[in-house]
Structure formats: C-alpha cells, structure tokens
Amino acid sequence: MRRIRFTRAGVAALLLIGSWTAAGTVPASAQGAPDSPAARSTDSAPASTALLDAMRRDFGLTRAEAADRLAAERRATDLAPEARRTAGPAYGGAWFDAGSEKLTVAVTRDAGAGTVEALRSAGATVRTVEHSARRLDAAKARIDRLDAPSGVSSWSVDPAGNTVVVNVVEGERSDNDVRAFVDKAREAGPVTVRTVPAPAVTFAAGTVGGDPYYTGNVRCSIGFSVHGGFVTAGHCGGVGQQVRGWDGSYIGNFQGSSFPGNDYAWVNVGSGWWTVPVVLGWGTVPDQLVRGSAEAPVGASICRSGSTTHWHCGRVLAKNETVNYSQGAVHQMTKTSVCAQGGDSGGSFISGDQAQGVTSGGWGNCSSGGETWFQPVNEILNRYGLTLHTA
Questions:
Q1: What is the residue range of 189's domain?
Q2: Active site members
Q3: Which of 64, 129, 223, 272 is the right S-S partner for 92, CB 3.0 to 4.6 Å?
Q4: pTM recorded for the entire structure
Q5: Under 8 Å between Cβ of 335 and 373
Q6: What is the largest CA-CA distance in the chain?
Q7: CATH number assigned to the domain comprising residue 184
Q8: Same-domain status, 331 and 353
Q9: What is the rounded CA–CA span in Å between residue 159 and residue 318?
Q10: For the chain, first and last CA: distance in Å?
Q11: Where is the active site (predicted)?
Q12: Looking at the structure, do residues 312 and 256 belong to the same domain, yes or no?
C-alpha cells in the first residue's frame, strides 16, 4: 500500500531528524495554552529548508529574507497575547506588518503614556485608532445576529482598518435585501463595505495532513493528526459516516461534526491506520513536522496542504470572520490569501511548524488566485477535548 509504506519511511525519518520519541513528544493539549512559547519546541530551527523554498517561490523572497520574515513572525506571535494584556481596555487590535517586520498594536486615545512606552519597549509598533477592539467585536457580534441574504459574503473585524468589513458579492450591492442588511450593519457600529466573489465550500465528487479521504462520493483532505484520529472540515461528513483512505481502505468514522454554524469535525482512526505529526508537502516541499498550534497574527505568512492543489502559501488576512455560505453562516473563521479548490476542504493550514486550522472554503482557484477561509484548529481541539499530535 503506497501511503502506508511511505508513512513508515516517514516515521523512521522523524525518529532520526525530529527526535520523535514517546519521551520527547510534547503534545499541545486543548486544555493547555497552545499559544504560549512553552507549547513549542524551543530548540528547533526557525524554519525548514522546505518552508523557506516555498516562501521564496510564493512571496518572491530570497532565502535570507524568508528566514528573517519567519523569525519576525515568530516574535510577533509570541508578543501578541502580552500586548493585548498590556493595552487593556485601550486595545484596538494587532497585526503583523511585513514591511517593518514588527507587530503593530492599535490603541485608543485614552491609552496612557506608560502603556504606549511598554508596548514599544516590548518591540511593537503602536498606532492610535478611534475604536477599541471591544467595540468592534461587539459590533461584529450584533451583525452576527442579523439574517444575512445570499448576496452578503462575509464580515469580520479589520484591525488595521479599525472597522468591521462587510463583504458583498459582486453585482449584488444594489439588491434590496443586501442594502437593508448593510443599513442594519452600519447601525451596529463602524462598518466598511467591500465587493468580493461569492464564497463556496470546497467539495469534490498513516493520517497525514493534506492527504485525501473519502466519505461516500465526496473527497476531502485530512487536516491534522490528533491522538486517536484527525481533524477536518464539518461539511465533509456527518457523525457516524464511514471514512475511507487514499487507497479505499476503512479508516474510521466521523465522531463529531458541525456545519453550518461551524465547519469542523474529527474522525477516529483504526484498522491499521495510525497518526503522525506531519503535513504533506506533495513534492513541492518536503513533508512538514507539526510542533504546536500557536496562533499566527493577521499579516503573517501561512501555507496550506490539500489533496487537489497540494501546497500553496499566502498571508493571514482576517480573523473571526463570519462567512455566509449558501448552506448557512459559519462563524470564527480565519481568512487568507491562499488559493484552494474542490477537494482541498479539511486540509492543513500551517505557519512555520505551528498548526493553524482546517480548510473550509473560499472563492477563486489556484490558476487565477483567490481567498480561502479556515476554521482555527485550537477551537476544534477545545470543542472535542482533543490533543494535537506533535513532533
């Protein structure tokens, strides 16, 4: 069996390269603090050769520039939670700026001089904004309670713009229902309207991230191995449905699934299948080890592995976005500039060696470009009490 032979070889390589032993494995527990520096491997290199090569290809960076970018993103990821605590009620959001290679932290005008100085001393760039993150989040939550017409694609807080962005499907802005929704959204708080293509979930007629699996006549992709199974997209199957692997053999069944509202699920693994902390590189890059699930900030680099379009990279564009699919709204999604196509659903989003989430849907394709959403992996781990399998 091709994949099983490959997986055994991959495990052997991990034992040599990644020190992947029972004693050395430090899983990122859903009950722990996966976004803390302690949740990661502290002695690992900032990036693999594979990831640096992918960033050179997709971002037009030199190898040195790619390494510097990843190191800066790691510092920003570590700083983000502390920056939020330091800013307190004046916090207006944060994002990674690729130009300065620093975390930018927005604060309202009532932030004290000591707070601003503390943020700058920690390495952040500070920007003064009108609205706090609390106000923007509250406005977004009020919009979540509205009945969205199909002409509204999604909405989320844009920290850099200090606004809630409502995305309207091309050609639908003059629709009466869309106009009524936008009017009500503006009553909820500061809103900016943008026009985008219509979103769609990405259906297509060892458990390694990005590998294909089948439920009935639907093909989707594995997200990340967890102890006892793997996580993936909820729209790929319902609780109890049987799952077959790339070779047609039985893997397990959906143990939990939610869609719409959420787009996540997990599948148990048995019958000779096992889990490994690896995301497939599909020959574009070598396979990637997973060492944790620290959440990358807006603006950070991110890559995706899926069974249709394989390996592609881009940036984190927005968090906590509500996406209005034709099947219903899905909440707390992260939007990226990475392309995807049918069959990539459920596949892995990874930043450096940190798991980020599972592919849900998007618009466009990998020929002309597009945007894709993922459901954050830490939310899935917490929802089902799962533990990420890490190297």
A1: 133-198
A2: 235, 263, 345
A3: 129
A4: 0.78
A5: yes
A6: 64
A7: 3.30.300.50
A8: yes
A9: 8
A10: 24
A11: 235 (charge relay system), 263 (charge relay system), 345 (charge relay system)
A12: yes
